[in-house]
Every structure is written in C-alpha cells, then in structure tokens.
Design brief:
about 120 residues, mainly beta, seven-stranded mixed β-sheet, four-stranded antiparallel β-sheet, elongated
Amino acid sequence: QVQLVESGGGLVQPGGSLRLSCAASGSIFSIYAMGWYRQAPGKQREVVASITSGDSTNYADSVKGRFTISRDNAKNTVYLQMNSLKPEDTAVYYCNADGLRSWSDITTPHNYWGQGTQVTVSS
C-alpha cells in the first residue's frame, strides 16, 4: 500500500518561510514526477510546482522566484521551500506522485495524493 505523508505546514507571518516535506512509502519501484498542489477556500485546486525524476521543474507563475521544489529520489521524498510568503499563499497544500509504479506491478503507473497540510500566512 502506497502512502504519501506531508509535513511542515503551519502559521507564518507575511514575508516568512516554511518548508514542506512529502515522503512516499510502500513497495515503490519508481516515481516519474512529484509535485505540490494547493487549494484555498472556495477555489479550485491548482498546481504549485512539480519535479520529474530527472530534476526537470515547473512552477506556477504566482510562486516563481519565491518557492523552490526539490526531490530526493533515494528517499522518494519531495520538498517545497517557500520564501517570502504572502497571505494569498494560504491554502491546504497537497503532495502528488504521478507515474508511480509499485514492485507488485511495475507495468502500470498510478497517481497518488497526500492528505494535505494547512499553510496559513497571516499577521
């Protein structure tokens, strides 16, 4: 059974920083891409950043220059360093693993989500 467990959310003042972590556990053969999404109250879930197994990254325009995504393939873990946080960054942040292949069936890729972690930016 594959699980994604996020950590690192919390309350921070505008201009502050937070680092989110997401560890994928289970019988994992490989993961193509890992990423972070967020959903604010009353809004649709949106992609924040993603990174492939080859370290190719993409960012939403709203976070470019402020957020940095990184990945430890050996640990199946993805990180999101968030700097210069703004109130509009307040949301539940979800980890995603795309193209995940387990040892029980390496021919079929799957998509998994974490349970979400709250990030609140407020003075």
